[in-house]
Input
Amino acid sequence: MHKDQPLIFELSKPGRIGYSLPALDVPAVDVAQVIPTEYIRQEAPDLPEVSELDIMRHYTALSKRNHGVDSGFYPLGSCTMKYNPKINENVARFAGFAHIHPLQPEETVQGALELMYDLQEHLKEITGMDAVTLQPAAGAHGEWTGLMMIRAYHEANGDYNRTKVIVPDTAHGTNPASATVAGFETVTVKSTEEGLVDLDDLRRVVGPDTAALMLTNPNTLGLFEENILEMAEIVHAAGGKLYYDGANLNAVLSKARPGDMGFDVVHLNLHKTFTGPHGGGGPGSGPVGVKADLTPFLPKPTVEKGENGYYLDYDRPKAIGRVKPFYGNFGINVRAYTYIRSMGPDGLKAVTEYAVLNANYMMRRLAEYYDLPYNRHCKHEFVLSGKRQKKLGVRTLDIAKRLLDFGYHPPTIYFPLIVEECMMIEPTETESKETLDAFIDAMIQIAKEAEETPEIVQEAPHTTVVKRLDETTAARKPILRYQK
Amino acid sequence: MLHRYLPMTEEDKQQMLETIGVQSIDELFSDIPESVRFQGEYNIKQAKSEPELMKELMALAAKNADIKTYPSFLGAGVYDHYIPTIVDHVISRSEFYTAYTPYQPEISQGELQAIFEFQTMICELTGMDVANSSMYDGGTALAEAALLSAAHTKKKKVLLSKAVHPEYRDVVKTYAKGPGLEVIEIPYKNGVTDLDALQAEMNEDVACVIVQYPNFFGQIEPLKELEPIAHAHKGMFVVASNPLALGVLTPPGQFGADIVVGDAQPFGIPAQFGGPHCGYFAVKSALMRKIPGRLVGQTTDEEGRRGFVLTLQAREQHIRRDKATSNICSNQALNALAASVAMTALGKKGVKEMATMNIQKAHYAKEAFVNHGFDVVFTGPFFNEFVVRLNKPVAEVNKKLLEKSMIGGYDLGRDYPELQNCMLIAVTELRTKEEIDMLVKELGDCHA
Ligand SMILES: Cc1ncc(COP(=O)(O)O)c(C=O)c1O
Output
C-alpha cells in the first residue's frame, strides 16, 4: 500500500516560514503611502506556510515518485534520453555563468559571449551550415524560427505565394503546428511501404506554392531517407527550401551532415543530442543553423567576434526580428558546450556508432517477439508494432504499463501515427549491454505473458505508486488547481 | 574508444555485431549514400579530460563580472533576488532533472504534482482561474497571449503599450507576422499607457490590449481605467506581470484581465545571461480549452487514489498537429519547479515581505536621487524600478560605475529616443543601503 503525498498546501500551517530575508536597512516606507489603495492587494495569495525541512521532505517524496534517466533505463523514442553528465550541471552553476545579467555591458560578459560564439562554431561544423543562432528555446521554437526565416527569404524575393509547408506523415506534431504558427498551410506527403518519403507523392504535392519541406533524417521510424539528395532536388527545383528537424541528430553525428544532405535550415535539440537535461519537460534549447542565403534573416542579435572582442550585433535590417527576449537559454547552451568539449570529434563519432549499434541490437533481438514493420538497419531508434499482441487482447498501452513494473520507462507509443500499435525504442549510446539485455528480457517476458496470462499485462502496472489514472474524467471535469 | 559516458566494451561490441549479423558498425551505416557521407572527423576542438575542462571553463566563467560579486542595479525584466538555498537542492534531484515530460503518469507523479502545485500558486498570485505548466519565458508567453486573443476573438489588431518591455514587444511583433496580425503601439504618458491614445485606437477590430504591470519603467499601470477601454469592443485584456510584485499589488485577475502572463524568474531562477527563465500563462476559465502548452489535472486511479495527469491534451501539437492552439512542446518545467520551491519557501508571508522590501528599497533610492538633485522622470506609483535622467550617456556612466565594481542601470535610450541619457534603475531586496548610497554618490555630478 502506497501512501499519497499530500499537496504542499495541505502541509501548510499558519505561523511557519521557510525563508530568511535580510532586515530592512532603509527607513520603512509605508506601502499605503506610495501605492494607491486600490492597487494594494487586500488578500494575500494563499501560498504554503511551511518550514525548510517540510519543503525538503515534500519534494524528496515527490522525487521518489518520479522516474528519470538516473533512476533507470528510459528508451523513449525521439527524445534521446541519454545520460546527463554531472560536470555540465556544475559548470552551468559557476557564478560567472549563472549570475550574469543579459543587459550588462559587453565588456563584462566576454566569457559568456565567447562561449556562445564557440558553441555556434562547433554547431556549424557539426551541421555543415554557414551560420547558427542560439536564440530558440526548444525544438518547436527553432522550427518556427526557421520557418519564419524561410518565409522572410521568399518574401525578400518578392515571392508571396509560397503558402505551404510539406511534412511527411511520419512527422512529429510540432512540425505541422510550427508551420501553422508561422502562417503556413500544411500539406502531408505519404511514406512508402519501406517507411521512406514517397518520391512520387512528393513530386505531386510540391509546386510553386511550396515554401519548404520539413524532414527529420533519419525519420521518426529511425530510417535514413536514402533519397535525400533527390528529394532536395525536387524541392529546390520548385523553389522551396529544405528544413531539417534535428531531433534525431544523435543518429548521424560524423556520418552525415544536414548541410551536406541539401538542407537549408536546421534546428537542433541541445536537450537531446547534446545532453542538456530534459528537466521534466524543459528547459531545452533549439539553435537554428542556416545556409548563407538565409543568413541575413537570422533573428537579432547575433553574436559576433570583432577586433575588440565579442559583441552582439543588432544592426541586421533583414532579420526576422526577435524570437525571444535576450539570447536564448544560455544555461542549457553552457551544458551542451561542456558536453561537446567533453566528447571531442572522436567522442561524438563514437556516440552515434554506439547509439546505432545499440538500437540495431535491440531491434534484432526483439524482432522474434514483436512485429518489425521495417526490416532493415535502423539508425538510433526503431519501431515495433504490437499488432501480434493486440490480437491476443493486449494493447501497446498495456505493454507500456507493464514495463513500469520492471522499473523501466516505456518507449514512445502510438507514434509515428502510420504504424499500428507503435512502440518507438531509442536506447542511446550511454546504456550498457547488460541494461539492454535486461530490458529485452522484460519485453520477451511480456510477450509471453500476452500469450499465457494476458490479464497481468492488461491490468498493469502493479507496482507503481498509483494505478492507471482516469484521464477521461480529468479532461471532462478538469481540476487544474488546488482549492481549499 | 574509452569514454566515461560510453560503456560498451570491445567484447560487447563483437557480441552485438554477431547478433545483428554484420561484420562492423560501419555496415549499419550502409544506407547512407556515399554522396552525403561525411568522411573523417569533425574539425572541432579535441576532447578535454574532466579536470582540464573544469579548469578551462572556470577561467572562462571568471571572465564575466557576475552580479553576486558586482552589486547590480540592472532590472529590465531580469532581477537579482534572494534565491533560497533549498531551491537548488530540490532541482538538483536527478529524478526531476533527468526526466522528460510526464507522459507516463504512474511513474511521474512527482513531477505532475509539482506542476499542479505550480499552477495553483500562479493562479493565487495572478488572481486567475487556470494557469498552465509554463512557457519558454515572459516574452514568448506574451506573444502567445496575443495569438490566443486573435484566435479567440477572430480579430486581427493588437494594441500594445509602448510601456511594455521592448524585447517582449519585439517578440510579439515577430510572432504576429505568422497569422498576419497588425500590431499598433500605444504611446505612454508620464510613464504609463496613454489612455486617450488607447481610446482613440479602440474599435471592433481589436483582438486585445496589452499592458505590463508594473510596466517596463517600473510604473504601476492603471488597470482599473484600462480594463473598461480594453473590453469596450469585446477584445481581450492582456496583462504581463512580474509575479513578485503581485505579492503586494492587486492581482490583474481582480481588474478583469482575461490573460495574465509573465516570467517567474524573480522566484528562485538565476539571471543566467537571460535564460532559461520561466514563462507563465494564466487565463479566465472561459479560455481554459484554448490555453497553449501543457496542463496538469487532478484525477483518481482505479482504486480511487488521488493522482495527476496531463490533461486537455486535445489542444496540443502531438494530438492536433496543424490545428493545435500552439506549437510548444518542451517548456521550462525544471524552472517551474524552481519557482514553485521559491514560492513555497517564501510562502504567504515571505512573498509579501520580499515584495514590500523591494518597494521600500526602491523608494529609498528614488528619494536619495531626488535629494541629490536628480530628475526622476516619471512620478507615478512604482514597484522596484524607476527612471533617472543623467547629463551624459548612460553607457559612459556605467563604465565609470564598473570601475567602482558596480553594475549600473539600463540605458533607456537604446529603445526610446526621447529617453536619451535616462537610466532605468532596479533596486531589489538584495541591494543594501550602503550600495544604494554608493550608487547615488558615484552618480553624484551626473544629474541633468
Ligand atoms: C522529431 C521531433 N521534432 C521536434 C520535437 C520538438 O522539440 P521540443 O520539445 O524541444 O520543442 C521533438 C521533441 O519531442 C521531436 O521528437
